[in-house]
Amino acid sequence: MGRFDDAHLRAFIAARDRGDAAEMRRHWDELVIDFADRMDGFVGAAHKGRLDDDEHEEAVQLAMIKFSQNLLHTFSGISMGQLVNACRRLAAYVCIDVQRAAARNAEVSADAAWESADDERTQQGWEVDEAMKHFEAEERAADLREFFLTAFPKLIDSRREVVELTFFSSLDDAQIAERTETKPNNVQQRRRRGLQDLRKLYNEHWDQ
Amino acid sequence: MSDADKVLSEFITAWNAGRRPRVRQFLARVPAGRDRDGLAEEISTFLQVAPTPSYSEQQRAEIRESPAVRAAYAAVDDDAGAWPAVLPGLRNRAGLSVSALAGRLLRSVGLGEGERQRTVDYLERLERGELEAERLSRRLIRGLGDALGVAPATLAQLGGAVARPVSGGIAFRVGEEDPAGWVEAEIDRMSRAALTPARPSNEMDELERLFCGGPDA
Lengths: 208, 217
Known about the structure:
A: mainly alpha; 9 helices; B: mainly alpha
């Protein structure tokens, strides 16, 4: 990328490679600070002003906790571009989570009988199911990396190239189009089909 | 130049100058709807490639003290994790008293109303940071997620063995004033824990196992 000041990330990765935990920790501290405003911005942009101040602060807090934990435990990337992309996706995910909870709580507040409702679990069942899916997905994070390693080679070359650039670079569609010598429309089509293929492989993978 | 273009330009200038612009304030300057959504997308795209500003030491100290960053550090450093920093907010947003949360939790995990007061006590201790995050069970985290409307995966990140693999946990539990001494401190902590006879989980009742029995209880 070269556009970010990535000194802390480079130092963090170098320390991680050396197994130097104290240095890792020191640079992790600084990385968390480096990313705080960016995360706040991503969260604000993701909800586009639809969360109130308290909900926004909560979303930023949860996103930063998740970001810093992921950086610590599961981030295996090597570039700021990868980390920034992860940060953006995380902000979007947490915003959805907070918006969903806010919507649910609004419904619950309107329903004074919540505490005694017998059908409470049915009412919220789909959300619990969704939450459980997220939870299970988190627990499978390590396996997911293995899945990508085995799944990517199975994609048609043209789709794989676009999907890889989508996941692992910060190029926009125009740049991906230039890199893959095609038109932006084709990039979007290949990405959509590549993701559909990945989803199919993903389902097969977990059904085994 | 449209209003949105002007606002975007000002945001970029403020970011690059290290003035720490808040996206929400800039978005609020554009009418809600297509223009604001478009501006949000453009700011997000900018943030994907924007350099990290050169913050002053004072600014870094301010960021370090922000609730979000403090909670992120607590999730890794504190025995109680980020639970005391986050749980009261989640509960308040859900419009629940501790007692109401206890009621929801009991229903979610299938325990009777007779345990409500003890559950209240445990929840208050959790909010005060008096419970070890590593001893919280997955069942509790799922139950709280259910009760609060928050994804359990999000709660699992607040700290504890559920979120913290042993190697990572050890690697990052650093004494603030003596970074080099963290290994010794961690080994000492673990030794003390190992030497303290753990209360066998079969001696705990259901509620105690939920809050203190460890991830698999």
